[in-house]
Amino acid sequence: MDQESVAMDSAPATTSEEQAPKEARQRLQALAPAARSLAVPVLAVFTGLVIGAIVIAVTDPVVIAAYRQFFRAPAAALSATWRAVSTAYGALFSGSLGSPRQVYQAIQSYASTGDKALLLQAIYPITESLVASMPYIFSGLAVAVGFRCGLFNIGVEGQLGIGALAAAYVGYSIVGANRLVHLPLAIAAGAIGGAFWAAIPGYLKAKTGAHEVVNTMMMNYIAFRLSDWLLNGPMKAPGYRPITPVVEPSAALPRFFPPPLRFNAGFFLALAMAALVYWFLFKTTLGFEIRTVGANPHAARYAGMSVTRNFVLAMVLSGGLAGLAGASQVLGVNLWVGQGFTAGYGFDAIALALLGKSHPLGVVLASLLFGVLRSGATRMQSLAGIPVDIISIIQGLVILFIAAPAIIRWLYRIRVERAEEVVLTRGWGA
Amino acid sequence: MTTIARSAQRVVSVGRSQGMGALFLAIGAAILVLFGRGLEAGQKAKFGLNPGFKSQAIPIPDLELPVQPTIYALGLLILALGAWQLIRGFRSADAVLGIVAICFVFAFLTWSARGKSFNLVGMLGSSLVRATPIALAALCGVMCERSGVVNIGIEGIMLMSAQAAVVSATVTKNLWVGLAAAMLAGALVSLVHAAMAVSFRVDQIVSATAINIFGAGATSFVAARFLEKNVNGLNNSGTFPVIPIPVLSRIPILGPIFFETGIIVYLMLFLTLAVHILLFNTSWGLRTRAVGEHPRAADTLGINVYLMRYVSVILGGVIAGIGGAYFTIGSVGRFDEIMTAGKGFIGLAAMIFGNWTPFGAFASSLIFGFADSLQIKLQILRTPIPSEFLLMAPYIVTMIVLAGVVGRAIPPAADGVPYEKE
Questions:
Q1: How many domains would you assign to chain A?
Q2: Which partner from B154, B206, B355, B416 sits 20 to 30 angstroms from B15, CA to CA?
């Protein structure tokens, strides 16, 4: 359809009556590339969900049993398949978005009696999804900033952990401070912790050409060991569990609803950070330099930009964002740090940055989607008995489809677009 | 090269050689200060030279060393090496660095084992076993990257083949079927990576990351959905027995370490040699390396770049599959979620540390395995150093090596660059 409108528009329009539709068409045409660039991610997610449904169906014992009788009762087999998939995905989406009927009833009851309890219950699933997407936004942005500079920061996981530990330390060790001082201090500690952890591989890349993928990976493991030691030693809370003490209330991100709702100001901080990253990357000279180095380091060097300085800068920013992910999770949701805190955010973040095409808005949208999937998966596990790991399967497939758009284009017969192919990484070499 | 550049290089190399000397002196001083201080005279450290298990090896007396003289001797030796390096300079400072490192580790062991007994052979044997999956992962990496395909998806490949191994071995009640299934699984997953990397020219690191995420998700999904409910029918295979090799296993020290162990360790030792011969002594290996260094030139000479890359990546996958089998049918006989615990990534580090050669990869895997098993021993000996820091050491060393401070890690020139036929 887009193709046709483009073709029609190329014919010269001369008469004044055609002026109005032409303007409209022009506006459409301006939207067309955006729509087309959305096509691959949307279809990738869709295909991932379809394959996820197939996996759910073929691993369901009831469905398998029904298919043994397929030739005698094909309708039963098909309905069993439908039931398995719809139960699972129904639970996934009702667990992450809430059911519309419940929301409607809750609003009615609030209007008639003024009782907020039902309303809070009805919005609980969707606020939990937003809570889940908060660290995703930060960590997805972290990987995206790296990608924009041609760096693959696979160490978000470790940077996030160090950021979380730093934020937790400032959060619990300062007692009796004003929230206006304490909270920003704790958040800043998280960002600095993450930035420091990323600065080391960034510096090594700039100085010696050592590939950042290996070094950030090594830094991950060093971070895991360091946090094992800290949680069992210097930062251990009294008691037998290897966790840090709970952060002071003055360092916690403010929450908007009474418990168990955990929705907090961190979400808006994440959105603000996405806007800030957009402004930085696309509206400032430094951001332009970073993107130029990412697109073509040789051209950047000839233009007089310091490639090495931009490598370090991009890594520091990336690590800072990863640290913020950890800080927001500690100060907003968990309030303490335990073992296994980082829980695969680093790898999820790569998926998010790819899905969002390394654009802050895309990352936010992808994070909201993953937040929905992750928080709904827990309910899907308890209601439909589908292990949460199905989300990782879908995620892996989505990355594969995004990375190889040829598959998606072939599946859906999309014509090849003449879009720029973003170079994400380069080999190990110097 | 201009004279200025050449003299600058000489200055750099002189600086490096002096830095190395200073490093030796620092290590020697560290031994004397850290370990030599506060030692009781006459204390002894006993190193067990017979394996802890019932072995075929001829028993030999244990090694009993006086702690204080040993540590002082090692410290002074390193100081002397450092002084020589500063004044005259060794021709191969890196080799001397290796000796210094070994001396340091031995001094550390002597200090930790003071007044106690420490089974050296047992620990070396467990180092080899722990190094096995790392070495297999590293060999997979060498195969792939020598042909110019970066493969950081080894972790995912190993997880999936580990699960394939244990399930098929349990169902058929035959461990060999399990091993074959693991190799097949490794080959199939690698085929996906090869198709992505070679045919679709996808960013190889991204494609491998997808494989890692998918592998972790798929194996955990299967484990939660099927294996947990039917452990005995699906997830209880038993393990390969220890097979002593006649005659060789009777050699003291070496016998129990190398010749009285499991089939997968033997396979790993064999594959290290096989990959080396394949890559460096056959025309096929020459072609593979040519494809990894300069695909355009290789293509001009009529070598099928795509085919060579496919074959190398799939062979690498078979090796990684054996590495995956180690985790289940080679060691515990069941599958646990995310049981590879980053060994695939460590294998990658070992590959880089070993400068993309099979022997180098094997040797560095041994270092990683040694650190791993030493850490457990030290917990038993109650050394005041937190074991977490010891576990960090291999990663830090890898970063130092990669930074070119010690030696220089040089990857194949076309590593990770998709090739497009004109």
A1: 1
A2: B355
Which residues in B lie closer than 8 A to residue A221 (C-beta atoms)?
Answer: 342, 345-346, 392, 395
Q: Which residues of B199-208 are buried (b: 16+ CB within 10 A; e: fewer)?
A: ebebbbbbbb
Percentage above 70 pLDDT, chain B:
93
Beta-ladder partners of B118? B47
Residue at A112 is within a domain:
no
| Amino acid occupying residue A377 | A
Residue of B209, B338, B385 to mutate when probing chain A, most A C-beta within 10 A: B209
Residues whose CB falls within 8 Å of the CB of residue A277, separated by 6 or more in sequence, listed in order: A141, A144, A145, A321, A360
Q: For chain B, which domains are there?
A: 3-115 (no CATH), 121-402 (1.10.3470)
Domain carrying residue A294: 135-358
Evaluate whether residue A27 is within a structural domain. no
Model confidence pLDDT, tens digit, residues B300-352: 888 899 999 999 999 999 999 999 999 999 888 888 888 888 888 889 888 88
Nearest to B155 by CA among B168, B172, B136: B136
Q: Looking at residue A183, what is its pLDDT? A: 92
Does B159 touch chain A if contact means CB atoms closer than 8 Å? no
Residue A425's pLDDT band, with cuts at 50, 70 and 90, is low
B416 lies within 8 A of chain A by CB: yes
User: Which two structure tokens, joined as six digits, stand for B400?
Assistant: 């130092």
Q: What is the pLDDT of residues B166-188, one digit of tens each?
A: 999 999 988 899 999 999 999 99
Residue B250 pLDDT level (bands cut at 50, 70, 90): confident
Give the closest residue to A354 by CA, choosing from A368, A343, A340, A367. Answer: A367
Alpha-carbon span A398 to B210, nearest angstrom: 8
- Contact residues, A window 297-336, toward B, CB-based 8 Å cutoff: none
This model of the complex carries an ipTM of 0.79
Asked whether residue A367 is assigned to any structural domain, the reply reads: no
Distance CA(A363)–CA(A345), nearest Å, equals: 14
Which of A213, A229, A399 is facing B213, going by the closest CB pair?
A399
| C-beta of residue B197 within 8 angstroms of C-beta of residue B420 | no
Selection from B378, B391, B296 nearest residue B342 by Cα:
B391
β-bridge pairing B63-66 and B44-48: antiparallel
State pLDDT tens for residues A49-70. Answer: 899 888 888 888 888 888 887 7
Least confident of A41-55, A373-387, B9-23, B341-355: B9-23
| Cβ within 8 Å, pair B209-A350 | yes
A327 is a domain residue: yes
Distance, in Å, from the CA atom of B388 to the CA atom of A223, rounded to the nearest integer, reads 10
Beta bridge partners of B64: B46
DSSP B349-388: HHHHHTTT-HHHHHHHHHHHHHHHHHHHHHHHHT-SS-HH
List C-alpha distances in Å: A171 to A251, A282, A321, B252.
5, 34, 18, 57
Question: Which CA distances in Å does A331 have to A122, A129, A172, A326, A335?
Answer: 25, 17, 10, 9, 5
Which residue is listed with tokens 């680093």? A346
**Cβ-contact B48, B122 below 8 angstroms:** yes
Report the distance separating Cα B326 and Cα B263, nearest Å: 9
Q: Before B69, cis peptide (omega within 30)?
A: no
The dihedrals phi and psi of A145, each to the nearest 5 degrees, come to -60, -40
In sequence order, which residues have a C-beta less than 8 Å from that of residue A347 and are 6 or more positions away?
A157, B209, B212, B213
| pLDDT exceeds 70 at position A236 | yes
| Both structure tokens of B379 | 């917990």
Q: Is the minimum CB–CB distance between B332 and chain A shorter than 8 Å?
A: no
Name the DSSP class of A405: H
Q: Which residues contact B373 (CB under 8 A, 6 or more apart)?
A: B123, B126, B127, B130
